[in-house]
Every structure is written in C-alpha cells, then in structure tokens.
Amino acid sequence: MKNRVITISREFGSGGRTIGKKTAEALGIPCYDQELIQKIAAESGFHESYVQDAAEDSTGGFLASAFAHHPQGHSNADYLWKIQYKIITELAQKGPCVIVGRCADYILRDTADCLRVFIHADPAFRADRIVRVYGEREESPQQRIRDKDKRRAAYHRFYTDMKWGHAQNYDLTLNSGTLGIDRCVQIITQLY
Fold first, then answer.
1. How far apart are alpha carbons 79 and 70 in whole angstroms?
2. Mean pLDDT (whole number) for 138-151
3. Is the pTM for the entire model greater than 0.85?
C-alpha cells in the first residue's frame, strides 16, 4: 500500500513553506523542507548552503553548478538530483508526510499516493510577505520574486520536462493571498 504524501510546490513568498509545516502539524505527520537539504548535504558531502544554492535559490542557480563536475564525471547538479530523488522516494516509502519543493510532485508521481498542491498569490501579496515575514530588503521585493520564481521554474522544467505552476500538473492550486494561509491549510487537510 502506498503512503499518502502531500507535496507542496510554491511561488516565492506565497507562504507554501508555512502552509506545508502547518498542514503536517495539523495531520500529525512529518514535514520535510530544510530537512531535505540537510539529508542531501549529508549524503552528497556538499555543504548545506551549496545544496540549497545548486537548485533554485542561488544567483547562478543550477545552471551555474551544472558546469562544476563531480569526480564521478557528471555535473554536481545531476549528482545532487540523483541523491534528492533517492531521499524523497525513501521518505515517502517510510510513511505519510508533507514534502515542500524539490520537485517532489514529479519524483513521487508513480510511487506514492500523492496530493500535489501548488500555492500561488499575486505579486503584491508576495512582495509584502517577503518584506514582513522574511525581512528581505536588499533588492526590490518584486525583482527578488521574479528571480526566485524564474529559477524554480527553470529547475523544475530541466529535471521534469513539466511546466512549473501550470494547474494541470497539480491536483490542487490555492491562492494564499485570497484564501489566507490558515484556510489553505484547512482545505489541504480536508482533502488528505
């Protein structure tokens, strides 16, 4: 029997990470987000900041790290993808959980009873949220949102050949700006 897993993909600043954690808490199951980065770093031997930067968060993104090669002959990005794939699959086999980001929606498409969720919101809501919640002020919040979303979309497209954020690739898309964080959590937990 397949474990029930919720995957949360999200636009930057939409509250997807918070929704994932609150959903897991409400259901009494683990949530894997930063823990994934720690597990990938431990298994790969790379520092956590490199693992995070090698995917969606770095200024060069995975494309820059793709030109760095692992001693086994493939790119560091591909090496990290293989480890990420393995770890996410193992976590889903271990038991019910919530997994935030990291293309888990794609990775688990055939191996878990997966509720694939995409969280989005309008740019004004997200810009306000990243300043208020994350304290981000180094650059324009709108530019930061565009950059992060662009990297996430490119990473997702590169490894999955699917369009990130397109409704047909998810079971549920929720606008956290309209519904609010807590209502999104309620909807997801009701569908679990």
1. 7
2. 87
3. yes
